[in-house]
Each structure stands twice: as structure tokens, then as C-alpha cells.
Amino acid sequence: MTDTTSHRALLPDDEDWLSLFMGMEEPLLMQLALNARAVQEGDEEVWELPPDLDGAGAHEAWGRLFQALPEPLRHTGTNIGRSEPNRDRPAGCYALYAPDGRWEHTPLYPADVDPRDVATVAAVLDHFRTALDGTDHTQLGDFLQQMADDWADPGREGNDRQMVEDFVRGLSVWQLPHQPDVDVLLEAVAVAGPGDETPERIVLTPPQEDAYQTFMRRVSAAVAGNSPHDYALHRYANS
Fold this sequence. Notes:
Blueprint: E1 7-12, H1 15-22, H2 25-40, H3 55-68, H4 71-79, E2 95-97, E3 104-105, E4 108-113, H5 115-132, H6 140-150, H7 160-172, H8 180-188, E5 201-203, H9 206-224, H10 231-237
Parallel strand pairs: 2-5
Antiparallel strand pairs: 1-4, 2-3
């Protein structure tokens, strides 16, 4: 990643979002990558998927997004669901407070992200939508249903639409439009960036608090699947 291609994003240390983001790798991206490699190796036991679906590239791009997560977020993401989570405090961790100094918020961290990685992962969604719509004409729809069945709770049929919607929601925070609230908050939490000595706590000013509330409403809508650009898939999942 270079300075000419990356941009500064703002990411919340939020378990709901991070669990969705971590869940994008399995059952979808890793399996797409494995299938793509099997095709390259001449294996006959493969799924017939769209030739322009770059499963290996999308999985690699997801890996770069994971590496772009600040250490506190990687720590949260990798400890979700563990029976014995790592209790060590990760480097760069801090507490974020409202102007009164008492109400604690979800911490926010700046991260340098390559938009091309986000676009590469998002590109598979066009194929997923086509498959869910029944107009793909490859085995991608069968692949999605099989992955959903494999990862469903015991005794329950897999929900391919819900699985894809969860994928959308996991990607959603990376795709949030860069609005003025982001600039205000990036300035507020700049000391939590890479290479800086992060303080134990950051207290927002009233204008920063207003920006925080605006930004977190956008985050909540995205993670809940209520963002406008997610409407079509959300409609499919609830049909």
C-alpha cells in the first residue's frame, strides 16, 4: 500500500461489526479462493463459477483489510467467540468519553486503507446478487446454498440470503462515505494512530460529540443492514 492509493478511514472497536467482518472469510472468501486454486491446478472436482469472479484476489484483499485494522481491532476480532480469549491489553488501546468525562463511548481508530482492496472484495457481491436472483447460469447459487448449509446450526437449513447479507454488513463500515463527521473525529483521535503513544483516555469536545453521534448513527445503520446502498440485498434477504 502506498500513500498515493490509501486513504484514512475511521473504524469502530465494535464487536457486532467486527464479528461480521471476520465472518466474511469463512464460509465464503476462503472457499472461493480454494475453488479458484483448484481450477488452476486442473482439479475436476470444482464448482463452476463465473470466470470473472476473482475468488483468490478477493480473499487476498480481505487479508490486507484485516492487516489494516489497528491492533486493538485485530485483538477484538480474533477474540470474538473464543472460549478462552486473550485478556492482554493490546498496544494503542484507549477509552473514549463524552464531554462530561463520565459516559464512555465505543473507541474509534484511524486506519490507512487501500480503496482497491475494498472494491476487490465488494466485486464478488455483484456475482452473489446475480446468483441469489437466479440469473447467474453457473453453479454459484448452488455454492452459496452449500456453504450456508455447511455453516448452519445443527438441525437447521442454511440461509444463503442471510449469509450474503451478513457479508454485506461486514463490508459496510469500510464503505461508509467520507463525510465531515469523519474529519472532525479523525482529528479528535489522531493520537490513537499508528506510531503514536496513545493516551489512556480521550475526552471529546461538544462539537466532536456531535460528530460522534452522527458517525455512529451511520455505523449502526450500516451494520444493521439499513444503509441505502444495501437496500436491494436486504429486501431479498427478507422476502
